[in-house]
Design brief:
Strand content: 25-35%
Strand order of the largest sheet: 1-12-3-10
Shape: elongated
Number of strands: 12
Largest sheet: 4 strands, antiparallel
Order of helices and strands: HEEEEEEEEEEEEH
Mean pLDDT: 79
Structural class: alpha+beta
Length: about 170
């Protein structure tokens, strides 16, 4: 009984300190369609948060034309959604697929959740004219820990197993 309480207390202590931890960070070159590969292999089935932040110059007027992962302006405020060129959305994508980051954020920080496939990922910026882009965006990949409830459930099941074992 005491052992199961110790295990449960340890699980609570571990789970309360658990938070997303950065596993990779790199700059995304927006001047090429090649994108940038992650420096790590994302574990199969593991949840990750991909965060893209910053702004860069887009278009001919570098001092007035600004873009981020999903929005741009051509000298007007606020930024507006990047529109598609052909069948492709202009903006940041992952492994060949467009990413919809949702509404405009004034801090220019956007994130999305992905599930690891047992390989590195390629983060890219899709555009119709890369020659007029200048700069880069920052990309950070963070591992999402198991929810605290999963650790508590596991410790509770372990405690029940220990109690059954002792009663025999």
């Amino acid at each position: 009984m005491i052992r199961s309480l110790i295990i449960a207390a340890a699980a609570v202590f571990i789970s309360t300190g658990a938070s997303a931890s950065t596993v990779d960070a790199f700059d995304l070159d927006v001047t090429t369609s090649a994108g940038t590969d992650s420096n790590i292999v994302l574990e199969l089935g593991q949840q990750y948060r991909v965060t893209v932040s910053g702004t860069f110059s887009i278009g001919r007027n570098a001092s007035r034309h600004v873009a981020d992962a999903e929005f741009f302006n051509l000298g007007s405020d606020p930024l507006v959604p990047l529109t598609g060129v052909g069948s492709r959305e202009i903006g940041v994508g992952i492994d060949g697929a467009d990413v919809d980051f949702g509404a405009f954020r004034s801090d220019n920080v956007y994130s999305t959740l992905i599930t690891g496939m047992g390989s590195a990922i390629n983060v890219f910026f899709a555009d119709s004219n890369y020659r007029d882009n200048r700069g880069a965006l920052s990309v950070e990949i963070s591992a999402i820990p198991l929810p605290a409830s999963m650790l508590l459930l596991a410790s509770g099941l372990a405690g029940i197993g220990l109690m059954r074992r002792r009663s025999r």
